[in-house]
Amino acid sequence: MELPINFILNQKTVEANLHPAATVLDYIRKHQHLTGTKEGCREGDCGACTILVGSLIEDGVQYKNVNSCLMPLGQAEHKHIVTIEGLNCSQLSPIQQAFVDEGGTQCGFCTPGFIVSLTSYLLANDNYNIDDAIDSIAGNVCRCTGHTTIKRAVKKIIDSIASKTELTGDKISSLISLEILPTYFAEIPTRLKTIRKAKPSQEYEQKSDFIVAGGTDLFVQKEDELRKSKIKFYFNDNSRDKVWIEGNQCFIDAKAAISDFGNSDVIQKYLPEIKKYIRLFGSLPIRNRATIGGNIINASPIGDMTCILLALNAALHLEKDKSTRQVQLKDFYKGYKSLDKSIDEILTKISFELPKQNTLFNFEKVSRRIHLDIASVNTAMQLKIDNGIITHVNISAGGVAPIPLYLTEMRKSLLGKKINSSTISEALQSALSEVNPITDVRGSADYKKLLLRQLLLAHFHKFSPQLIEEELTL
Ligand SMILES: Cc1cc2nc3c(=O)[nH]c(=O)nc-3n(C[C@H](O)[C@H](O)[C@H](O)COP(=O)(O)OP(=O)(O)OC[C@H]3O[C@@H](n4cnc5c(N)ncnc54)[C@H](O)[C@@H]3O)c2cc1C
Ligand code: FES
Ligand code: FES
């Protein structure tokens, strides 16, 4: 079923009459012939298809870089979609010029993606530094130039603009005055407000075959099926309030992207270490689209957010026909990809108790490469020690069972005990008795068991390095 989808593409207001599950990549290349955006892997891995998506939030537009190969066109509605062509100014922008000067481009296939991601970095941040700028292109892969020249280009950009006085005040005006953005960007907020937002008919919504959130799992697994189906979107990119507090509970909108969760004021205040762990989740364009709800419902035994939320002993809030119910995340998984959820129930929010003062939290993930890879084994632990006694503990483990595991036996073995080497040693034995990994491409069952043991030990090492160093015999 085709639907009218209205948005601004670069400088032009467009109405696309296509199936909402057509990808933005196909629309811009095949229908608009904007071939600067490249098609590489179509799986979110290479970054050749990176575009900017601008969403109207209150009176401003917030831009994020995303992989257009995994973004359904229906979610472009009411947005500003920017391809590399839409970033052209009267001359090469300082970003483009730096790539030329430093030899950061060879065949050029990857270059538009790098330029778009770096533009997004400059748009999304107030203070610039080389490490963060390089992190912002972690999802862009170059197969021929070698990343050293690209890094040199990044350094040149940051060195040349970080101290510019033009960077004070409104970000978009500043970047226009530095000729990093073309002038038409200034009119986009006003223009977006006038765009008609076509709503799918109620009948269409009620009969949806698929709920699509960020689409980062669905478009890799089922793109063809989605194009023949009725889909309903469940994604929040037009409000700021995606994580909030009620009493002693933290609530997360299930439609929140992983990056919004990590950047939220509540998480930065109560669990500041999460921001660092989230850098291990895909690349920034993936984190800008992947939702917390999608990670939980996808039910991968190695889902990173699921692993973190299990160790926060989170509860899920499910809704169907306006009736709601709550289930603990640790009781939600019944078997491999089998959930305590009916087909038409929607996960609306997730909640967990705000950590009390001096509560420790740690997440460990081992994958075949540090960035842009799914885990072989992951685990998280929340721990509170009062006067040497463990008074609160939750532990999760991924990649060691058909489901993301909450380690019940290990928790029992730790709770109320004095923290010392024999307690830890017994707890590790308990943990290993409740896991059952399989041998697959990410490692043998024995390797994963050993890995989990070491990662659990790593939690204690982070919390109390002295204790572990004194007890090397563990
Ligand atoms: C390149 C790449 C790298 C990745 N790296 C990681 C990684 O490092 N760690 C990791 O854990 N994952 C990773 N993923 C997997 C994926 O990004 C996550 O699982 C993501 O959180 C899925 O969220 P989504 O919004 O994109 O889900 P979608 O693909 O939109 O949906 C996934 C499933 O959940 C259902 N669903 C979504 N939201 C709801 C809801 N609120 N209620 C009911 N059903 C719902 C959908 O119908 C679908 O069945 C990666 C994926 C890619 C492509
Ligand atoms: S084509 Fe490779 S990330 Fe989209
Ligand atoms: S310049 Fe050829 S892939 Fe990067």
Explain how this protein is built.
By secondary structure, the protein is α+β, with helices and mostly antiparallel strands. The protein folds into three domains: 191 residues, Beta-grasp domain (Ubiquitin-like (UB roll), Roll); 32 residues, no CATH class; 228 residues, CO dehydrogenase flavoprotein, C-terminal domain (Enolase-like, domain 1), CATH 3.30.390.50. 33% of the residues lie in helices and 22% in strands. The chain has a five-stranded mixed beta sheet. A five-stranded antiparallel beta sheet has the order 8-9-14-10-11. The protein has a four-stranded antiparallel beta sheet with strand order 15-16-17-18. Strand 3 and strand 4 form a beta hairpin. The N and C termini lie far apart (61 Å). The mean pLDDT is 93. The structure holds flavin-adenine dinucleotide and FE2/S2 (inorganic) cluster (2 copies). One FE2/S2 (inorganic) cluster (FES) binds next to loops.
Domain module count: 3
Strand content: 15-25%
Quick one: how many beta strands? Answer: 18
Cα shape: globular
Class from helix and strand fractions? alpha+beta
The N- and C-terminal alpha carbons lie at a distance of: 61 Å
Sheet with the most strands, sense and barrel status: 5 strands, mixed
Quaternary state reads: single chain
Structural Rg: 23 Å
The third-level CATH topology of the largest domain is Enolase-like, domain 1
